[in-house]
Amino acid sequence: MIEMKHITKTYGDLTVFSDFSLEIPEGEVLCLMGKSGRGKTTLLRMLMGLEQPDVGCITGLEGKKISVVFQEDRLLPGFTVRQNLYSVCESALQQEHMMRILTGLGLEEWIDREVAVLSGGMQRRVAICRALLVSYDFLILDEPFRGLDDKTREIAIKLVLEEAKGRTILLSTHDAEEGKLMGGKILNLDAYLT
Fold first, then answer.
1. Measuring CA to CA, how many Å separate 100 from each of 35, 85, 96, 118?
2. Strands 168-173 and 66-69
């Protein structure tokens, strides 16, 4: 169980969280919903260790490997899809796995093209593929399906759920349909943080 206990987080005069607590059960899917500016990304950044709460603590992450799809693709623009993905592959087995994921996402024909020439939706899929290739216990997804059409989004969600089966997944999204397709518990921060 990953727990956020009595978290307070402020930026100057803006209080994003005040005495906020959350339990993320091991091996389950939790979908964070809420309007822009509600604190979804801040919450994820605290779980990643990129930001610290002003008050409170986070437990249950000790020894856990975290993989992330950020809101921004964070790809290496001067490199090909293959080079971007090889940057996280440590073995030939991972490279085979990479091809299976790319094929599942419909990107196998683009493997030797520079990511800069790919559409935004294709770049999103490369970022998803990269996150699934590393060894992880906890998968954090910050609006990972943004820019994908409905059919591609469904394919990507199905693939993520297959690849991350049995691991803890935390999804941040504005889209209730994505939360439904992920099949996890939905936590609406708009209602939770009144």
1. 35, 13, 7, 19
2. unpaired
